[in-house]
Amino acid sequence: MRFLPFPPDAGDEIIRTQCLKPDWSGREAQWLTAAAKYRRFRGNPWRVRPAGFVDADADALFALYDSRGRSGPIARIRRPAVPFKSCPMCGSLGGRSLDHALPRQRFPEFSILRENLVPACEICNSSEKGDTYRGPSRPTRFIHPYYDRWASRALWRIAFEHDLDVLRFEPVALPDLLPRRRRIVDFHVKTLLGKDWRDSVRREWSSLPGKLRRRVGSAPTSAAVRVELGVRLQDATDTYGVNSWDAGFLRGLLADPVIVEGLVDRVRALPA
């Protein structure tokens, strides 16, 4: 979850070059119009409609990514010269992949359009998201790394239930976001953050009391625990990014005094 600059070769040149090849010129006008609408509506799935390519035309456009997905220009989107701190879509530390912001099954015309190819981890590009590309109602959709400049700021945290004997939690948008953006972020995190993220949270939670004890002693105050969590949040932000899994976890802890008190009790209860 972060704002990214466009890939270096974004734009219409890739379409014009492809349409110089035999049997492709007849698709050029419709293809360029579709790309222009994509940019005009900033990749918003509630505004961009499929261009209407069918049969052989749709198949040819769809297959372009299969033949070029490992090429130099597309590979550089996946693996930039300066590595991402964490997945630009979900904040994980998973492997590098590419996702189609608007799925090529439905929008084959955007199969190799650079603005539609967003860096993502293998988790984002797996079955967790499935065929979902927008929510059940406007404006719910995924954050678009190339168009949503506001994604550079902190967007989410974990909300914990207060019965800590059975850890229950969910990702939520930060309450100070504008209402429309809050709905977008809520849809984004609740859709993308799945089993791997939940396992990660449980691991962090179970190991945290021991880590805190080594830093703040066996009988810490709430204030001391909050200071340590704040330091850890800054470290996570610097290392992995403001919307990384670690940052969302620590923001959730700091946002809830009841959870902080629960951590204090767990640190004090550890055996000597």
Features:
two-stranded antiparallel ribbon, 272 residues, mainly alpha, 4 strands
The tally of structural domains comes to 2
Computed CA radius of gyration, to the nearest angstrom:
22 Å
The H-and-E topology, N to C, reads as: HHHHEEEEHHHHH
Query: Runs with pLDDT <50, length 5+?
Result: none
Level of helix content? 40-55%
Number of strands: 4
Strand order of the largest sheet: 1-2
What's the quick description here?
Helix content is 43%, strand content 7%.
Structure explained in plain terms:
The structure is a single chain. This protein is mainly alpha-helical and 272 residues long. The protein contains nine helices and four strands; from the N terminus they run H-H-H-H-E-E-E-E-H-H-H-H-H. The strands form two sheets. A two-stranded antiparallel sheet has the order 1-2. A two-stranded antiparallel sheet has the order 3-4. Strand 3 and strand 4 form a beta hairpin. The longest helix has 22 residues. It is elongated.
Helices and strands in order:
Blueprint: H1 13-18, H2 28-40, H3 55-68, H4 72-78, E1 96-100, E2 117-121, E3 156-160, E4 169-173, H5 179-192, H6 195-216, H7 222-240, H8 245-254, H9 257-269
Antiparallel strand pairs: 1-2, 3-4
Helix pairs in contact: 6-9, 7-8
